[in-house]
Please model this.
Amino acid sequence: MFAVVMLSGIYGLLSASFFVVMDAVDVAFTEASVGAGISTLLMLTAVAMTGRTEHVTRHKPYLAFAVVFVTGCLLIYGTLDMPYFGSPDAPSHQHVAPRYINDSMQETGMPNMVTSVLASYRGFDTFGEVTVIFTAGIGVLALLSVVRGRESDAEIETLNDSMHEQYLILRIVIKMLIPFILLYAFYVQFHGDFGPGGGFQAGVIFASAIILYVMLFGLGTARRVINQSFIQILSAIGVLIYGCVGLVSILNGGSFLDYSVLSDDALAGQHLGILLIELGVGCTVASVMIIIFFKFAERNEYIQSKNGKST
Amino acid sequence: MLAHLPILQVIVPLLAAPTCLILRKPSLVWLFTLLASASAFVISILLLQQVMAEGTLIYELGGWSAPWGIEYRIDKLNAFLALIISGVSTVVLLAAHTSLEKEIPQDRQTLFYILYLLSLTGMLGIVTTGDAFNVFVFLEISSLSAYALIALGKDRRALWASFQYLIMGTIGATFILIGIGLMYQMTGTLNMADLASRLPEVPQSRTLFTAYAFFIVGVCLKLALFPLHLWLPNAYAYAPSIVTAFFAATSTKVAIYLLIRFTFSVFGVEFSFSVLPLETLFLALGLLGIFVASTTAIYQNNVKHVFAYSSVAQIGYMIVGFSMATSAGLTATLLHLFNHALMKSALFLALGAVVYRIGSAELNDFRGLGRQMPLTMTAIVIGGLSLIGIPLTVGFVSKWVLVVAAIENGWWPVAALILLGSLLAVVYVWRIVETAYFKTPEPGRKPVKEAPITFLAPVWILVSANIYFGIDTRLSVEVAQAAAESLFGVSP
Amino acid sequence: MNFLSINSLFPNLALEVQLQLCILLPLLAIPGIIATRRSPNIRDAISLCTSLLVLSLVFSLYLALDRGEIIAAHWWQILPGLDIKFSLEPLGMIFALIASFLWFVTTLYAMGYMRGHNEENQTRFFCCFAVAISCVMGVAFAGNLLTLFIFYEVLTLSTYPLVTHAGTEKAKQGGRVYLGILLSTSIVFFLFAIIFTWVIAGTLDFTPGGVFGETEDTIILSVILVLFIFGIGKAAIMPFHRWLPAAMVAPTPVSALLHAVAVVKAGVFTVLKVCVFIFGIDLLEELASTQALLYLAGATVLLASLIAMRQDNLKARLAYSTVGQLGYVTIGALLASSLGVIGGSMHIAMHAFGKITLFFCAGAILVAAHKSKVSEMSGLGRQMPITMAAFFIASLSIIGVPPAGGTWSKWYLLLGSMDAQQWSIMIILLLSSLLNIAYLLPIPIKAFFSDDKQSSSHAGMKEAPLPCLIAISISTLGCLLLFVFPEPLHELAMSILDQPLNDNSLEHNSLGQITNGE
Model:
């Protein structure tokens, strides 16, 4: 299973490079951070908890293989009539795309078309996606919560010292890097409308900084730094910010998530709206990733301690 | 406010969910959830009235018109489904506080309600939107929350049931996404109405066939069509009782809605039924589902399993109505959507009351329950009679309309088979009746009290609805007929 | 006889209201029965009073019908074009009259029986009884097939607790067969036939002359007829007759009222209604399946009588006798002759009185002498003279000889079979009378005239409890009276086929056949 996780991480990274070749840098960014980064990390944690190799199954997976084969053939069959890769006559380039390309700057004031589509034209989809992430966080909270006693300060110190010895170089380097990672996260967050970036990527990067910290400094120390209930509430606040922007739009006379009514100038309104919702996205994404990782790590710790006690 | 009803239908439960996280205390959270669900119900009633009076409602999100922005299109079909979903959700929530006391640990109850609200949001979002990708997004929300909710069941097997559901559900969702992606590629739009007008212009290509095929298979996984139903019995049996009562009435209905919407409104009847042999395929699978599932239900020892398999059979009935590709058949399907939601939510909620009192849903533990929990058992008996199709219940009306549709279509053997399926229902319902009323409880078991009023009230609301809508069918039949006819006319 | 009717109490009660009250009144009595469950006397008094009230309502309706008034009521619409509605016509009147009268008599009997037998759960018993009677009224007054079907099904369900009253394993098994056969036939065949009729004819209303137009395909209609006959399981046509003997696990008052009167009569009543008002006797003659079904009914009659002869358990013997007697009514309906219809409808009444008396006697013997097998009943006449005498008279009614009322119905059935030139049916009818003699008469004869050892062992047994005896006497009197005064019944039966009701331009010739007054 370790091999499977690694392979899927490599797959994620390769996909990111495809997207770069196709000039879809935003998507590549997200794929790299989420698909190759966080996912691999979380899956590794899961593998650590469950075990490296699969139980040997008694039945041969013929049915599964047959289904996969048929699906694959059907997919290939479906590609036969597809428009050629990159063809300018393809329907997807002819229909809705021209307006986005031509008018996005005037209508939303945003040079980054990806962000304008994501956050403004199809902002409701993004709202849905944020809710999906929030749901995942809640699901993990509901299923993986472990009741554990509070560790004493002395215990935390001992752990800290032992880790200091084990990972000395890493800790020192990371300590220097974390602020820059955080800063970069903020940069990606607030410059998403001009360059590649946006709430999702920023949130993931922010979370990865925290995760790095947790990995190298231990859960006990990390819990002191990061308040658990604050993080949970932050994830809720992210979604609420997004929703409230929409509600304010309604109260101002427009439809839900219509940013142009948020201020007197339509473009300024768009800018404000997008800024706020991206903030909401970033909050939720970051906090959910941190929650998930914390829960996984706590569970891992719990299992290790149980195994430690039994042996 | 009235103009914003379409979006409020989804936003109210959606924003209520994170708010619950801030509220923290379980009793407060329960009241808040109940309030949110009740508001969604009221909104759905207002929406249905508006749609019946004015016709299809269109709401543009973000101020951008379709197909560059996302729009919500509410026609009679959507409004009908939103009514069912929010209505069942609210009534079921009335009993939630009591039920959760014994099924979910205190510290997880707030999270339970959040997931419940998210599930409600997801389903409402799927049925109200007019954008194909938006459908997928809300499908994700409802699926993820469903997996988590099912895994919260007390029984250890709930985890495995949820995992099975997760695997099959994710495959289904992935297939749906592939279908949507291919649709976008061939037409350049994600808006359903726009797709409907552009798809006929695309030449009958293999890609389109693939798109439709993947989409249909994905949806069939979600609606538990035989033989893709394997996830359903365990998921319904081991989930917390409130969850089962809610999902049994709603989650597969939403998938059937997607099937109907995409077949009739997006792809169009002629295309859908010619590119795949849907008529024969769905007829065969529907009938097989009815008979195989009903027979399996007879041999189950856990009453929740009995009714879960019964649900698979009832879905078979709906698919048989769909396969006729006539307005009458579709009316029968939509009518049964409504009626089955009433039947199953009543039954599973009553089962929840039994579980609350005796801690198990095994058939053996039902012995003598007829005397000790008379009101609850009467509710189960009436629900069972409704499943069989006794007159004066909703089940009878559904069967009547379906058989009339079959005979009008010239499918006489199918009509006979539909009625034969009811006999199997008699067997598995009567097993429960006999155990509860004829057997004496095991010696040494503590006497059991009747269920508390917090359970009895919602159960009997639903049971009375079963009888009321079996007698006064104006709401269900008129709306179902109107929705079916509008689907056969011009696309909305 | 107006003083007997409700008009003496409530002179201005509209006929429509009276009609609906017949159905609702038993249901309204249920809360009263439940509330007074601790005081058995008051509770039984409520049952008794309600049955008297219903009887007087029905009688008043009869008088109104006789005057030529149209009585109908409409409840609500279930689906577009499908209503729950009621309308009164002579056949329904016959059914309602005997059902309400015999309900009163049975309540008397049940009071004696249940107390004498120390039965438990009497409250539940009387409540379910009330629901069952309400359903019977609903069936009798139904204005279309849907209404009839609804009450028919609810009747099945409400009698299930009565059948399984004892709560034992045997009762459960009996209940399974009962419910299984009745529900299966009604859902798979009856409902199918109804829906088919709805789709083809467009209406389910009972119409004189039938609802099918002239140009319908007779093959499909034949199939529908078969579906109807098999679907109306309560008429106990073989092979769907097994529920009747299985229902004998019920306490005797249940067997008496329900399985001699209410449930089985609902079945054959429905058969008659379908044949006369859905198909119409002219159409019946043309259908291919009528002949086959007629033979099936005939076979049922013969086979049931043969099986009855071999039963030692008295109730089982009476049950199979009922199966055979129901076959008579079905024959009457399928003969496609107006005489057959008259005979069949009269037989509903005659057989009801006769059979109920027989069951009453069987129950009395069970309670007083604790005997259930025929072989043990020799010489019982000494101890239970009234019971056995009643048994004798009732047997005469079933066999069809004077001075019992069954004579007339059998007479008309024979006439009907001759009119329709169904000679084999005529022979079957005569043969079965002989068989009836064989399995019924030995019982009272041996009871009175046997001198063997068993007689002495009966010493010390008394007659049945007083309420039972009163009930038995009333029903026996009914058998005799129906012989001497058959005119009201006969007139009602003849007016069934009038088109429209009580049209004076039609005359009756001496044989009772309707002519056009030429």
User: Anything to note?
Assistant: The first helix of chain C runs from residue 15 to 35.
